[in-house]
Specification:
By secondary structure, this protein is mainly alpha-helical. The protein has a domain at 56-175. It contains 7 helices and no strands. It has helices at residues 35-44, 65-76, 78-81, 84-92, 97-129, 137-161, 168-178.
């Protein structure tokens, strides 16, 4: 056999069989809503839709960035100086209704918090006369403080987005006192 001579029959390699693509796994059926999610959705049914936080309206694109910043500052500074910050912004923003409304909401929240604090102090004093029942006021005070902190944070987010913010109780007090 000559090494330089090609073989008479060509060597044929078999084609590999095509492998079928794997079928996707079926998606599980969605879980039925839990009682907690149903309760939350029923609570939120009364809130205006479309805003960045509950109880806020959709953002208004016509609100200038300067007014958004001032409204947000009136909320943020409440962390440090309580009612003084929204009072200052309420008094100086006569020609800026967006800032005035957010400042009035902050003032109404500060007034509400002051009234609740005084009421809880009086109840604590009365319960102190009855013995250790006064200790019941402490967890209640903590819960109310956390709720007010949550409203404060929601006010900051709504002001930054350019949305009207109307928390349930505070907005009624704001409308009664400040008429904005």
């Amino acid at each position: 056999m000559d090494e330089n001579k090609p073989p008479e029959e060509p060597i044929v390699t078999p084609e590999p069989d095509p492998v079928p693509a794997p079928e996707p796994a079926p998606e599980p059926a969605p879980a039925p809503p839990s009682a907690a999610s149903q309760a939350m959705s029923s609570m939120m049914a009364d809130a205006p839709k479309g805003g960045p936080v509950p109880f806020s309206a959709p953002p208004d694109p016509s609100v200038p960035a300067e007014e958004k910043t001032q409204a947000m500052l009136s909320w943020v500074l409440m962390f440090f100086v309580s009612f003084i910050s929204p009072l200052i912004f309420f008094l100086i923003s006569t020609d800026k209704p967006f800032v005035k409304r957010h400042a009035a909401t902050g003032l109404a929240m500060a007034i509400t918090g002051l009234c609740i604090g005084i009421g809880m102090f009086v109840v604590g004093i009365i319960l102190a006369l009855a013995g250790p029942l006064a200790l019941l006021v402490i967890p209640l005070w903590g819960i109310i403080s956390l709720a007010m902190l949550a409203v404060l944070i929601m006010g900051i987010i709504a002001a930054n987005a350019g949305s009207r913010f109307d928390p349930p109780v505070i907005s009624k007090i704001r409308d009664a006192i400040f008429k904005v």
